[in-house]
């Protein structure tokens, strides 16, 4: 693994950009934003702050003499930088915690070690790392399948990772698995199948046992995003080759740091291939300050997950009985519960996320407006958080998301936090009363 020290480029103060440079920058911004959004690559906020402080003390080197300028300040800002070399301990503590929690409870399963775990600056970086690293050389098997309706950027990440073909099986249904199996039996070859356990925002769980059996028979890799399920609640390792997790979410909980991880199953028949491919591309660019804060935040990860499980289950059960609500998406309340239960740990719960679809769209709007919770696009925060999911995740493609994925345009997603259960229930009830008072 390469050094975790920040990559400081000698790019000091330079002349103001001319019209040509400004035009080029404006042209590049949309592509750069798309790349950043889909793959997650880019430095963290704390890394950027550190760089900005250092820039005035750095010379600028460029082929264009006009851009090669001396540092305006010769004294590097004085600040505590002991953390630069100290974060290796924190990174190792994160890896050890993940290794302990992700190890399977099933008899005969080998324990996961720190060597099996890769850390990344963001969750999307982890997904992108797996997608990129495992693009095969053999054209005839260069296909990636995304099974089920996932986080909005995942299919794009897979599609743009140089596979010759990528396929989204958006329903995540038995029928789609049947069709996949039939095509594999007829000679189709795929390299990798991505899925979520459970999915976002419909909280559906794929039939991992069947997928695992197909993977063994037809020699493909199974990659699972367990961010919503968590290491604490579910035990997917016996059925998958690699696990990707956004540590930004409930692993951190405080919504003040980002991170991602990849776990390679030590008993996977593809272990050497996956681990070698990831290692070949891996560079430890997880900024030390980010790792330190992540390690601090994660110290009570298990307890927080269990409390969120209790709160979310109570809210889901309450909402499921309300006459104005058509559907509640929660792992214990959807038809795929049996598949979730197959991977649920003995003391595991059903997670912290749920989604609601009302019979009437206007009721959804009134409920959301009246709901006394924080509003925002993340999940897994220690405080409860709600969003109109389709409006934010699929703003320019709501019709497509509804047609292809069954994502109702007025679906409300709630990430349940650590507040007192009675307080949360009261706020949900108040919002329901406000939303239905005129009906």
Question: Gist?
Answer:
This protein is of the alpha/beta class and 439 residues long. The chain is built from 16 helices and twelve strands.
Task: Report what the structure shows.
The protein is of the alpha/beta class. Helices cover 41% and strands 13% of the residues. It is built from 16 helices and twelve strands. The strands form two sheets. Strands 1-7-6-5-4-2-3 form a seven-stranded mixed sheet, sandwiched between helices. Strands 8-9-12-11-10 form a five-stranded mixed sheet. α3 crosses α10 (288-297), α11 packs parallel to α16 and α13 (361-370) packs across α16 (421-436). It is globular, with a radius of gyration of 23 Å.
- Strands ordered across the widest β-sheet: 1-7-6-5-4-2-3
Order of SSEs:
HHHEHEHEHEHEHEEHHHEHEHEEHHEH
Mean pLDDT: 91
Structural class: alpha/beta
End-to-end distance: 61 Å
**Strand percent estimate:** 5-15%
* Morphology call: globular
Q: What are the low-pLDDT stretches, counting only 5+ consecutive residues below 50?
A: 1-23
Would you count the extended β strands for me? 12
State the helix count.
16
The share of residues in helices is: 40-55%
Could you give a short account of the major beta sheet? 7 strands, mixed
What's the Cα radius of gyration? 23 Å
Pfam family, one: Cys_Met_Meta_PP
GO molecular function: cystathionine gamma-synthase activity; pyridoxal phosphate binding
InterPro entries: Cys/Met-Metab_PyrdxlP-dep_enz (IPR000277), PyrdxlP-dep_Trfase (IPR015424), PyrdxlP-dep_Trfase_major (IPR015421), PyrdxlP-dep_Trfase_small (IPR015422), Trans-sulfuration_enzymes (IPR051750)
Protein name: Pyridoxal phosphate-dependent transferase
